[in-house]
Amino acid sequence: MAREAKNAKATKEPGRMKQMWQVFQMTRRYDPKAQWWMLLGFVLAVAAGVLLAILLAAGNVFLMIVWILAGVLAGLLTAMIILGRRAEKAAYSQISGQPGAVGAVFKSSLPRGWAGSEMPVNVNGRTQDAIYRAVGKGGVALVAEGPASRTKRMLEDERRKVKRVLPNVPITVYHVGPDEDSIPLHKLSKTLRKVKNELTKAEVLAVTNRLSSLNNQLPIPKGVDPYKVRPQRAR
């Protein structure tokens, strides 16, 4: 019993500090500028704390210490926020351009109020191009994964299908791919967050139920799992 407990303790997940260090190392490897942005955010926050201490607590040592400590804490928080955003960008940069990348965003980073499946609603089994669908207060969002030249027709077909069952619901289309005017993978969530709200919570539920009639059993291509993604073969 004691041996099992010892083994379980040895195999448990690393502590929070170790996890943060691992995230920092990964981020710095793919984004060398991240550490300097973190340092800048920390220094500015501490400088603001010192400045407030001089302006608001001159002559009061206790209050000056409080303001400086507040600046240090704000600096640490700022650095962690910058690390989180840079880490997310670095993580998505590793799978950008691979099958299932949009599905990974849909699974973990959709904005609040939006819902979508990590599995596409339409897939080209030969090229592995795919169309994903999300529903939120902004209406229906269709996201094409792949070059616009190959996904344009798939996207338009899906838009027509949605329009047929939901004629009065706004539909927004996006491309995530290698094209210059495509949305970078790490900015997809931010882009959806900017969509103007058009539906109420009850209407979103009704739209979701209506769209369930369009769901089909699709032959999902090998590699669509974002955690088992493989590079596309050169053509």
Can you put this structure into words, describing what you see?
The protein has 235 residues and is an alpha+beta fold. It folds into two domains: 2-95, no CATH class; 101-228, no CATH class. Helix content is 53%, strand content 10%. It has eight helices and five strands; from the N terminus they run αααααββββαβαα. The protein has helices at 2-10, 16-30, 34-56, 61-95, 101-108, 148-165, 188-193, 201-211, and strands spanning 115-116, 122-123, 130-136, 139-145, 171-176. The longest helix is centred in the first third of the chain and has 35 residues, at 61-95. It is elongated. It starts with a helix and ends in a 24-residue tail after the last helix.
Counting H and I runs of at least 4 residues, what is the number of helices? Answer: 8
- Given helix and strand content, the structural type is alpha+beta
- Which regions have little confidence, pLDDT < 50, spanning 5+ residues? 217-235
Distance between termini?
Answer: 57 Å
Largest sheet: 5 strands, mixed
Choose one word for the global shape.
elongated
Helix and strand run: HHHHHEEEEHEHH
DSSP strand count? 5
* Mean of residue pLDDT values: 81
Query: Cα-atom Rg, whole angstroms?
Result: 23 Å
Helix content: 40-55%
Q: Proportion of β residues?
A: 5-15%
> Structurally, how many domains make up the residues?
2
Give short descriptive properties of this protein:
alpha+beta; 2 domains; 235 residues; five-stranded mixed sheet; disordered C terminus
